[in-house]
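[DERIVE STRUCTURE TOKENS]
===
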Amino acid sequence: MSEDTPNVDRLKAEERLKVEVPVEEEVMKVETSETGPVDVTAELRKLGRQMADTLQSAWNSEERQRFEKEVREGMRSFADEIDKAIQEVRTNETTTKIKTEATQVADKVQASDVGQKARVGLAKSLQWLSEELSSLATKFTPPEKEGDQ
């Protein structure tokens, strides 16, 4: 720096010679032209309170309560309609007739020789499939090394 350029230390020294004036080198709070110092923590706390108050007001609003009531009534109506449809299907003559016929056919198949043969064939097929899957799984399993035993 040149001799003509003032620096803080030189200005302090000159000021001490005249009158001792304290000079702050750091400002801890930001000054605003309208309100004075700004405290960020206080502002965030204030914002948090405002958000909580807003959410509380929205939750307690008549509009939200009316919407909740509407949704609950709609769900009740929906459930009532489903129950009504199920009851109609249960009591319908055609449904009852089909159910009775299906039960009779199932009883006949179980009692007949064909039904027994079908069950035995199905059991054998399932056993074969199980054995084949086991064999396939063995092929995918890497062989154990002698040191791993």
Notes: The first helix runs from residue 8 to 18. The beta strands are 30-32, 36-38. The chain has five helices and two strands.
